[in-house]
Design a protein that fits this description.
about 1100 residues; alpha+beta; 39-stranded antiparallel sheet; twelve-stranded antiparallel sheet; 12 helices; about 40% strand
Length: about 1100
């Protein structure tokens, strides 16, 4: 019997392979799904076509696999664009072609031969190789960045006592980390990934699928990041590369203590009885505390700086688990006392229209409350509160929808609760689009009214703003125009200014855009005399920018570097620049982890050395150890930096001569030990090399007061959401006293300047001065004469967004020119004080020699590519110093979180598969409706068909939501998303060490499930990851957690009717708290909290039934 079963199984496998091979030979155009997206309102009876809708066709083979997607007439000339997926004989993806333009415009299927004979045949595709096993794991991706070059993947096990497969076994007891030899051979799985330049990364995972070690092999160091877990598989400690590198061979263990190795570099985490992370120790900083209520929602948090004041930050929730109140309180109870006090209490407030903010205060949480933010939902009744009397709300004309479930208003305090900062009110249309807002800023004492009109594709066509201030009224209208593909082609800005005495108006055709056949922007017409061209290489990479007065060419693997290095993984090897009368080429060299190390400046053709060089060296955590800048006139900087952990300890200047006068603005002073200081939050409070004697920080770790030598001060005010709204510069005639714990202002005479920002409007010394626009600014006042006038200025920027030239809109005259080194330092400049947008478009704060770029969440040095405070997202990048700027690669990145989908084609394929499923469901609806229309059915048959139609409609609605979710992730400018395939039916979302968000699944349905969770997190205010890098459920409270998991499974089921639990024959309606809570794996409940919630609900309803039935 056993032999016959084995023969039968073997026969089935053979037949399956034959069937798959048979399917792969079918023509790819047999089946298709056509999608229409209206570009304009369509009346009943009017058919959709390419003239009134965006049309795309997804073609499938006979096996149901997506083969090609064609976008009908999408190019500027009305031609088609199409991609192609080629499968091998066992149904695996063998080659993927990116979207290419074709001559036809009928939406027909494009044969593979058309791709192979196209001018782009050597580029725009990726080939895949697989291991010869049943897992079909990818072993190579060829052509991802450079034709013929591959990214390889190996699947290994740990082994040996030395070498790259050896893994040290660390354990944690209390706060003592112990080295216990090495992991036994074969006890850990390893994935080794090697890029096109031969750089390898290893990821070791234990039997519980927890990452134990992430290893990067470099030339200077081996970068090991270890992860330690408790018996509940919770991450309790992370040891960055500096720990293993500096671990003394004679030390068997280290105990966390002030000033030692673990204090400087390691991360520690503690959890309560319910597995909530209640304490976290960050490197070089103190402990951060959290307190949760009975619904597992964080209600109190305390930073080390707040602990000295017995102060806690709090947040309160409404009945729908939305945060409605935020602020600070004083509470002298210990952390553990607070944890025990609230672990069984549901902290919930509701709107009742009483008090200052209209909410109840049933749970004070402490004494001396200071409210920093209040959010209002579902209603506009908050506008009748006395607090909002200063906000005169003006609603847009026409109809607008109910605001149920939407944010309708907001209160923001100034600084950390020192008074009113901003009052906001919002209105929406029937499609839940924001169409109107009224915002009063108490600092500028101005109100901004904004009204937006949209087209059918939800793109704005008109944004009207009316800015009413004590210094006059400014109106701005921005209009947009779009082409046949929904791409912006033109925009115009009209600005009007009135103050009761004079009225002025001016229209600026801000820009016109032209696209190539790949639908990429190639020309930007700023003015009649200023045109910027964007150049693309044959392989699709950005080639550079060209204009009459500035051009920039990017080189990759095509130009050999003067450093004798070649890069094939997308790194920029050289940049050629022409700016006004200057031309040159910067050759670049990189070190470990793609950190920029050297720049050498040559003539434009790359043949003659211009004796200008910038070099940087790093320690194992990425902190800058050496910085050298050499000019033709001599050395400017020959600096070395010493650190205590990741903190500056001292700096030294090793140059043999002083800097040349021509480059004096590049000089960075040096200071011996004792010139730097940090608070317990890790904020830099003293930097004598930067002339900072003392800096005080608010609860957002943003500097609110800075004291310089000679009595000069810089005072900065922020709204409670972190936006800087006021900058006050004072110069005292007598020195200020700088105490240890705060900055005391004297009443001595001083000169003072004030700058206030209200959205895009800027006040200087109480007068409306400027309106900032995306491509420049509009001056509303001559700050020297006080004359009010409207005059436009535009920027010419490089590929990073750095402002190179500032020009007069009317005459085209260049008023300012700035040229940058790769680090962001300016080495040549004219008209420097015309405006202060600099590197990457950031504003420079240069008062009193402060010289910092404002990056929003923190400040960055202008002369040293480094931040003065820790990255708020430092736990996403354990392997690198939290003060590092852009992973030490400032020529490629402008912000570590400023990208979208890593591979947009993966997202598009998933959307196409969803379109195919929608078409199939529509066919089912038509077929079942035909049966109903024919009649002759019993009531039971009718009910069954109607139920099928209803479920199909619900599934289609969910699938359309999933498509919108994919687009939402693509538009997110805060994260990098990558769809990644794994085996075994598993699915998760994790944050990689590279900062990317990996959606790892084994099927499209599971991808939809996890994309839903990402969207839920974004809606809830942003992605939150556990300490081991996995995405946390965005729900606050068990009810919300359950609902979000239920929604994700409904989206998954809507795609292919897959569900790992029992639906009791109810289909989509059967996915509820009981079915989700009942999901098991290996006999264990996957969601034990939801399972317990299900049991509690059943008990509750039984008790209610007894009460209603009189106890029977």
């Amino acid at each position: 019997m056993r032999r016959s079963i084995n023969h039968s199984l073997f026969l089935r496998c053979i037949l399956s392979c034959i069937f798959i091979s048979f399917l792969s030979d079918f023509c790819g155009q047999s089946n298709y799904v056509r999608t229409y997206v209206p570009k304009e309102p369509v009346s009943p009876g009017i058919s959709l076509n390419e003239s009134n809708a965006l049309v795309s066709t997804a073609y499938y083979d006979s096996g149901g696999r997506l083969v090609q997607t064609v976008h009908h007439g999408i190019t500027p000339s009305g031609k088609d664009m199409a991609d192609l997926i080629v499968y091998d004989h066992v149904g695996r993806c063998q080659r993927e072609w990116q979207l290419l333009p074709f001559d036809s415009s009928d939406g027909s299927y494009k044969q593979a031969s058309a791709f192979d004979s196209s001018p782009y045949k050597d580029h725009y595709h990726v080939d895949y190789e697989y291991e010869p096993s049943v897992w079909n794991r990818v072993t190579a991706e060829i052509g991802r960045n450079t034709p013929g070059r591959s990214v390889t993947t190996e699947y290994l096990l740990n082994a040996g006592s030395t070498g790259f497969l050896c893994v040290t076994h660390y354990t944690l007891s209390g706060f003592m980390v112990t080295r216990n030899g090495n992991y036994p051979d074969g006890s850990l799985t390893c994935v080794k990934r090697t890029n096109e330049d031969g750089e390898s990364d290893y990821v070791f995972t234990n039997a519980h699928e927890k990452v134990v070690l992430e290893r990067h092999v470099g030339l200077d160091y081996t970068y090991d990041t270890y992860f330690l877990y408790d018996r509940f598989d919770q991450l309790v400690c992370v040891l960055p590369p500096a720990v293993s590198e500096n671990w003394e061979s004679s030390a068997g263990s280290y105990v966390l203590a002030s000033g030692n190795l673990l204090d400087h570099y390691a991360y520690f985490y503690e959890y309560d009885y319910f597995n909530n992370c209640i304490s976290s120790k960050l490197p070089g900083a103190g402990w951060y505390y959290k307190v949760y209520d009975g619904d597992h929602r964080m209600i109190l948090s305390q930073s080390p700086n707040q602990r000295f004041r017995s102060e806690w930050s709090f947040c309160k929730y409404d009945l729908l688990d939305r945060i409605i109140l935020e602020g600070t309180v004083r509470n002298s109870n210990s952390h553990h006392e607070l944890v025990r006090s609230y672990m069984d209490t549901l902290v919930c407030e509701s709107y009742d229209g009483t008090g200052t903010f209209g909410y109840t205060n049933r749970f004070p949480l402490g004494e001396s409350p200071r409210i920093t933010k209040v959010s209002y939902y579902d209603t506009e009744s908050f506008l009748f509160l006395p607090l909002f009397h200063s906000l005169n709300v003006v609603r847009p004309q026409g109809t607008y929808s109910s605001c149920q479930s939407l944010l309708t208003g907001c209160y923001l305090s100034l600084n950390d609760g020192e008074g009113t900062g901003e009052l906001q009110s919002f209105s929406y249309d029937k499609r839940k689009r924001l169409i109107g807002s009224s915002i009063y800023n108490a600092v500028s004492r101005a109100t901004t009214y904004t009204f937006t009109e949209y087209n059918e594709l939800n793109a704005p066509v008109l944004i009207n703003r009316r800015f009413v201030s004590p210094d006059g009224t400014c109106l701005s209208d921005m209009s947009y125009h779009y082409d046949n593909g929904g791409r912006e082609t033109a925009s115009a800005l009209t600005v009007s200014l009135s103050d009761g005495r004079t009225n002025q108006s001016r229209t600026f055709p801000s820009r016109e855009l032209t696209y190539d056949e790949f639908c990429r922007p190639v020309f930007e017409q700023i003015t009649s005399g200023e045109r910027i061209s964007t150049v693309y290489r044959t392989d699709g990479k950005l080639g550079g920018l060209e204009s009459a007065r500035f051009s920039q060419t990017l080189h990759y693997s095509d130009v050999p570097s003067c450093f004798w290095n070649e890069y094939f993984n997308g790194r920029i090897s050289a940049v050629s620049i022409r700016q006004l009368d200057n031309s040159y080429r910067m050759f670049l060299s990189y070190g470990d982890r793609q950190s920029l190390c050297d720049m050498a400046m040559y003539t434009y053709d790359g043949t003659g050395y211009l004796r200008f060089k910038e070099s940087m060296g790093y320690d194992i955590m990425g902190n800058i150890r050496t910085l050298t800048r050499q000019t033709p006139l001599g050395d400017v900087n020959v600096l070395s930096f010493e650190y205590t952990g990741n903190h500056f300890k001292s700096s030294y200047d090793h140059s043999s001569s002083r800097w040349p006068d021509a480059y004096s603005f590049l000089y960075h002073s040096w200071e011996p030990e004792g010139a730097f200081g940090y608070d317990d939050n890790g904020n830099e409070t003293r930097n004598l090399a930067q002339n900072v004697e003392y800096a005080h920080y608010n609860n957002h770790n943003l500097p609110d007061s800075v004291c310089f030598p000679g009595g000069n001060t810089l005072l900065l005010d922020y709204l409670s959401d972190g936006r800087r709204v006021r900058t006050n510069t004072k110069t005292y005639r007598t020195a200020l006293i700088v105490p240890l714990d705060d900055l005391q202002l004297l009443s001595d005479p001083s000169s003072e300047t004030e700058e206030v920002r209200d959205g895009d409007f800027l006040f200087r010394d109480g007068r409306l001065s400027r309106l900032e626009t995306p491509g420049g600014y509009v001056s509303l006042r001559n700050d020297t004469t006080g004359e009010k006038r409207i005059r436009g200025y535009y920027y010419i920027k490089d590929y990073l967004g750095s402002v190179r030239l500032t020009c007069d809109y009317e005459t085209g005259e260049v008023l300012q020119s700035m040229e940058y080194l790769p680090s962001g330092a300016i080495f040549r400049r004219t008209g420097y004080d015309i405006q202060n947008r600099r590197f990457c478009g950031k504003e420079e704060l240069s008062m009193h020699g402060f010289n910092m770029y404002d990056s929003g969440a923190r400040l960055q040095y202008t002369l040293v590519p480094r931040f003065s405070t820790m990255d708020p997202l430092l736990e996403k990048y354990y392997d690198i110093s939290p003060y590092v700027y852009c992973a030490n690669n400032p020529v490629r990145f402008i912000d570590p979180t400023g990208m979208i989908w890593e591979d947009p084609q993966e997202a598009e394929r998933l959307k196409k598969n969803i379109d195919n499923r929608i078409t199939s469901l529509n066919k089912d609806i038509v077929r079942n409706q035909d049966k109903l229309d024919k009649g002759g059915l019993s009531e039971k048959q009718i009910g069954k068909l109607e139920s099928r139609i209803s479920e199909a409609n619900n599934r289609i609605s969910n699938l359309n939501t999933s498509k919108a979710d994919i687009d939402l992730l693509g538009a997110d400018q805060s994260n990098v998303y990558a769809l990644s395939s794994i085996s075994g039916g598993k699915h998760k979302v994790r944050q990689g060490s590279d900062g990317k968000v990996y959606i790892e699944t084994s099927s499209d349905a599971l991808s939809i499930h996890e994309v839903t969770h990402v969207r839920q997190s974004l809606d809830a205010g942003g992605l939150r990851f556990s300490t081991n890098g996995e995405l946390l459920n965005a729900g606050v409270g068990i009810r919300s957690v359950s609902n979000m998991e239920i929604e994700a499974y409904k989206m998954q089921y809507s795609y292919d009717r897959s569900f790992p639990g029992s639906l009791r024959g109810r289909g989509l309606q059967g996915i509820d708290v009981h079915s989700v809570g009942g999901i098991t794996n290996d006999g264990k409940h996957v969601y034990p909290v939801i399972y317990q919630y299900s049991i509690d609900l059943n008990k509750f309803f039984k008790q209610q039934k007894k009460l209603i039935g009189g106890g029977k």
